[in-house]
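User: I'm new to structure prediction. If I give you an amino acid sequence, what do you actually give back? Let's try with this one:
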Amino acid sequence: MYDRRIVAYKIGVSNNNRLVFDTFDEAVERNPDANPLFHSDRGFQYTSKLFRAKLEKAEITQSMSRVERCIDNGSMEGFWGILKSEMYYLRKFTDEQELISAIENHRRRGRFANCELKTTGYEFSHKKQTTLL
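Assistant: Good question. You get back a string of structure tokens that encode the predicted 3D arrangement of the chain. For your 133 residues, that looks like this:
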């Protein structure tokens, strides 16, 4: 991990290709000169030919652990665990917009910092290999 910043994120009702691809495209657009290492789990979105083509076009190296070994994606797995325990499991949400608002409020209050990820700034080192989350 380079500096643990979240470089892009999207919220959607389904973890599908469109959500992953839009988030990826935003991250690449915000950091055009970056040379990142992309850590992910083995979800269908990240193993598809379409996603591999996106990685190649952006000249990004993918890092993916073996099945049931989330070493490469451990920081994000920890992030989601903390977010769920601090915010999601503590209340009931009546609709999608209420959940999205709670996530946004959690982020604005700086609570994501507890996950050892920074949400401010989008700079990357242009020479060093960095991590795209």
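You can read the tokens as a compact description of the fold. Here is one thing that stands out. The longest strand covers residues 36-40.
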